[in-house]
Each structure stands twice: as structure tokens, then as C-alpha cells.
């Protein structure tokens, strides 16, 4: 088990990585799924042998409230159907923590429940916010779970210029689920999970 990293350089590197993903040209992405709530694209990841996914959709709410529902905190467990538990293990500053969370089985349990330990960081970006994370090799793996690994991931949330009460939410996700899994099952699950994330989030914000 690795010791906890120094949060400041890790947060800075993570933010720079996400901003680089965010500036990737449209021509590099291929559409993976499209719903009324979001479009999901993908491209080969630079971090591992799977894909980097990009999801984007307009959410009818202000930036701060949306990000409060996404980042580690009391809201996330209430609405995210994939997340089954979440504990804040360490808090460095108000916007910076290490969390452990578990996810439900997917695809009729072809993908068994997973556990992740992520460093999470939320910071300003343009007129909005960026909340981002990366997995750490930290803490004992609990029985009955496979430890997954999130390569740099994050959500950019910025108000629409002509309608500030609505926000453009763009996510970048590259999750290595680990364990013996057919890659096609992982790819199907990732696209659907990201599209469902938007519909579930929108329902939660309306309540």
C-alpha cells in the first residue's frame, strides 16, 4: 500500500491533464451512444488499454448545485444508482479529499461489485467548476470486491452564456475495472452508465 501523496502537486497535475483532455479536437472522438440527455464519445486511452470516454449534455441548473451533487459528499449516494457506499477517508482542504466507494454489479452481474479509492479535487474553471479524481493504491481491499482503478477523470461544469440558469456538463471517464472481464462488456456498460448518469442527475436536481 502506497503512502498518501502530497495533495498540491497531485491536484495541479490532475487539473492540467483534464484541461488537456478538454481541448482534444472533435475529430479524435467517435460517438459511442446518444440519448436525449447526453452524447457519449470515446477514444483510445493514453493511460491503459481501454477507452477514454467523453460525455456531454445540458443540465437545467446552476453550476454550483450540479457540482455539489457530483463531488464527494452527502448528495451523491442519494441519487447515483451505481454507487452503493462512500466514505471520506482523508480531508486535506475543503476542496480536496480521499474517498473510498463501492459500485453495484452491472450487466446482470457479469461485472461484479467494485471498490475504488480516489483522490478527489474540485477547483474553479472559466466561469464554472471542475471536479476531478484519480485512483490511489491506498487502504486494504475489502472482501467480496474487486479493486478497480480510475485513471484521470473529471467533470467540467460551466454556465451557458446565453442562459446562466442552465449548465453544460462535460465528463471524461477512463475506468479500469480489472478482474477477468470481456472488453466488449466493459465498453457497453461504460457508455450506458454515462448516459444514465445524466438522466439520474437531472431527476435528482428537480426534487
* Largest sheet features: 10 strands, mixed
Query: Helical region count?
Result: 4
Q: Percent of residues in helical segments?
A: 25-40%
Unreliable stretches (pLDDT < 50, length at least 5) are none
What distance separates the N and C termini? 41 Å
Radius of gyration computed on alpha carbons: 16 Å
Secondary-structure element series: HEEEHHEEEEEEEEEH
What average pLDDT do the residues reach? 92
GO cellular component, one term: endoplasmic reticulum
InterPro entries: StarD4, START-like_dom_sf, START_lipid-bd_dom
Protein name: STAR4 protein
GO molecular function, one term: cholesterol transfer activity
Question: How do you describe this structure in short?
Answer:
By secondary structure, this protein is an alpha+beta fold. Helix content is 26%, strand content 41%.
How does the SSE layout of this entry go?
Layout (H helix, E strand, L loop, with lengths): L6 H16 L7 E5 L4 E6 L6 E9 L3 H8 L3 H6 L3 E11 L2 E8 L10 E12 L2 E8 L10 E2 L1 E2 L2 E8 L2 E11 L1 E2 L6 H24 L1
Parallel strand pairs: 6-8
Antiparallel strand pairs: 1-2, 2-3, 3-11, 4-5, 5-6, 6-7, 7-10, 9-12, 10-11
Pfam families: START
GO molecular function: cholesterol binding; cholesterol transfer activity
Protein name: STAR4 protein
Amino acid at each position: 500500500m502506497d503512502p498518501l501523496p502530497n495533495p498540491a502537486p497531485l491536484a495541479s497535475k490532475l487539473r492540467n491533464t483534464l484541461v488537456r483532455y478538454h481541448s482534444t479536437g472533435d475529430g479524435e472522438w467517435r460517438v459511442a451512444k446518444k440519448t436525449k440527455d447526453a452524447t457519449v464519445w470515446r477514444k483510445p486511452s493514453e493511460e491503459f488499454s481501454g477507452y477514454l470516454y467523453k460525455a456531454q449534455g445540458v443540465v437545467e441548473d446552476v453550476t454550483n448545485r450540479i457540482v455539489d451533487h457530483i463531488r464527494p459528499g452527502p448528495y451523491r449516494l442519494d441519487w447515483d444508482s451505481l454507487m452503493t457506499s462512500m466514505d471520506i477517508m482523508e480531508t486535506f482542504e475543503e476542496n480536496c479529499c480521499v474517498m473510498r466507494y463501492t459500485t453495484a454489479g452491472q450487466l446482470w452481474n457479469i461485472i461484479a461489485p467494485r471498490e475504488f479509492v480516489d483522490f478527489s479535487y474540485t477547483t474553479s474553471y472559466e466561469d464554472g467548476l471542475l471536479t476531478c479524481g484519480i485512483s490511489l493504491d491506498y487502504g486494504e481491499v475489502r472482501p467480496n470486491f474487486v479493486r478497480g482503478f480510475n485513471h484521470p477523470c473529471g467533470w467540467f461544469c460551466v454556465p451557458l452564456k446565453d442562459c446562466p440558469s442552465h449548465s453544460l456538463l462535460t465528463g471524461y471517464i477512463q475506468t479500469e475495472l480489472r478482474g477477468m472481464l470481456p472488453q466488449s462488456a466493459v465498453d457497453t456498460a461504460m457508455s450506458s452508465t454515462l448516459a444514465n448518469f445524466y438522466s439520474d442527475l437531472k431527476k435528482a436536481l428537480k426534487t
